[in-house]
Design the sequence.
């Protein structure tokens, strides 16, 4: 019997939601790490009961937790994230240079092949890797030491590395994204990195077509087509068909192309999902209506998905790591809101149900499809 | 024997209840007490003071004998009552939002 496990990170703890393959009745387990910010949890693709969680606090800093039983119990592992060598400086909000300083882990991405190998995207932006189940962390310093590093600057949420995508056909290739530096690609397993921002246009920076400085909010890749990438930028929904070498805007008929998450249907690589948000200065849904937009054409042509979602007086946001899909035959789509709801659709977005509705503000949602 | 009171979140992390009692090598100072805390409970490394700089985290305070010792030098002797174990050394999460 197949099942689904939804891993929810919130401002005040982690929750594990489970259901059978029908996805009609859900068991809520949690909170874990009560009172701590859980930016992200994710399971190993090769050992699904191996989970990693980023636990942090403005008072007591960063912890990494690991579970080997699908989230029933947890053990703290290593939390020392030390930049390699002299950290150098990046641009601050006022244009001055400021030293790199570790603040928190935004995103954990377990390896596609080894449950003990996991990558961490951190603020201030850098990429770390552990090969011993999270006990020890080493920086892949070639990214932070890219010559453009001094031009990187924090977005409103901090200078965070929030997206890590592995190319399943090429173990040497990794894509990452930083707010607000942009997207980068390595083709040598992290030794050297290439900015891949050609075609992005950002009016909020002095040179709107600059090599770096773009506030990329999220990138999604379908594992069957790792050279096709979809991006939700600060403004604009973008698409690349050449592994990020160039990007084209595919915002099309969206009511607004500002937003945070973007994801792809598990079985239809041209079917993508975004949640339009009114603007960069008003992080609320347009017209008080919470609508997921779906494109079945890889962008440009979008349809509003509203069935089961609040269509009046709704002013929540959906953050960048708070949308995910399952891989059951009828693809499930999930997202969490800053109002504490997690909505699920078992029919690829046609209809939605809140599977839990009074959690703390949701920071991240990940989904595991269990056999 | 030095008595140390941890804030609730760190008691949870360290899986202890109430005060912890620690043998501290040499003079009782912030540095020696924190080293003993971290040696006994490695999960607290980085949670009270920074891994690299060893500086107190900004929203952590140190109290003892009704005094705020947070800005005392890390190698300054702690009050005798703390060194003698008659008063605890309090590690406190600062009052701040959230």
Sequence:
């Amino acid at each position: 019997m197949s099942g689904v496990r939804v891993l929810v990170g919130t401002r005040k703890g982690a929750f594990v939601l489970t259901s059978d393959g029908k996805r009609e009745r859900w068991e809520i387990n949690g909170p874990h790490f009560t009172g701590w910010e859980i930016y992200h949890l994710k399971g190993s693709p090769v050992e699904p009961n191996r989970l990693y969680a980023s636990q942090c606090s403005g008072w007591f800093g960063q912890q990494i937790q690991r579970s080997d039983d699908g989230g029933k119990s947890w053990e703290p592992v290593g939390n020392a994230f030390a930049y390699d060598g002299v950290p150098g400086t990046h641009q601050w909000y006022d244009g001055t240079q400021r030293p790199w300083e570790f603040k928190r882990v935004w995103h954990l991405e377990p390896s596609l092949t080894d449950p003990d190998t996991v990558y961490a995207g951190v603020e201030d932006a850098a990429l770390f890797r552990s090969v011993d189940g999270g006990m020890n962390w080493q920086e892949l310093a070639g990214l932070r030491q890219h010559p453009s590093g001094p031009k990187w600057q924090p977005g409103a949420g901090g200078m965070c590395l929030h997206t890590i995508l592995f190319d399943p056909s090429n173990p040497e290739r990794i894509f990452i994204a930083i707010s607000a530096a942009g997207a980068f690609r390595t083709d040598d397993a992290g030794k050297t990195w290439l900015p891949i921002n050609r075609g992005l246009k950002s009016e909020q920076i002095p040179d709107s077509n600059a090599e770096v400085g773009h506030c990329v909010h999220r990138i999604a890749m379908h594992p069957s087509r790792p050279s096709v990438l979809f991006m939700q930028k600060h403004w604009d929904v973008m698409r690349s068909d050449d592994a990020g070498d160039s990007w084209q805007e595919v915002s099309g008929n969206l009511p607004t192309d500002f937003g945070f998450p973007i994801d792809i249907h598990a079985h239809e690589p041209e079917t993508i999902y975004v949640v339009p948000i009114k603007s960069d200065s008003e992080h609320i849904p347009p017209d008080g209506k919470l609508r997921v937009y779906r494109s079945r054409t890889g962008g440009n042509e979008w349809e509003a998905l509203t069935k089961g979602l609040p269509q009046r007086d709704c002013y929540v946001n959906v953050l960048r790591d708070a949308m995910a899909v399952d891989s059951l035959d009828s693809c499930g789509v999930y997202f969490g809101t800053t109002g504490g709801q997690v909505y699920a659709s078992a029919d690829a977005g046609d209809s939605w149900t809140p599977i839990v509705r009074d959690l703390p503000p949701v920071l991240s949602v990940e989904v595991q499809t269990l056999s | 024997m030095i008595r140390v009171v941890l804030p609730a979140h760190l008691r949870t992390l360290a899986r202890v209840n109430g005060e912890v009692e620690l043998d501290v090598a040499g003079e009782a100072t912030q540095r020696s007490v924190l080293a003993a805390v971290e040696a006994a409970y490695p999960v607290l490394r980085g949670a009270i003071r920074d891994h690299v700089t060893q500086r107190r985290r900004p929203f952590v305070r140190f109290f003892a004998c009704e005094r705020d010792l947070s800005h005392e030098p890390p190698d300054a002797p702690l009050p005798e009552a703390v060194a003698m174990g008659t008063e605890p050394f309090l590690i406190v999460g600062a009052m701040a939002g959230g």
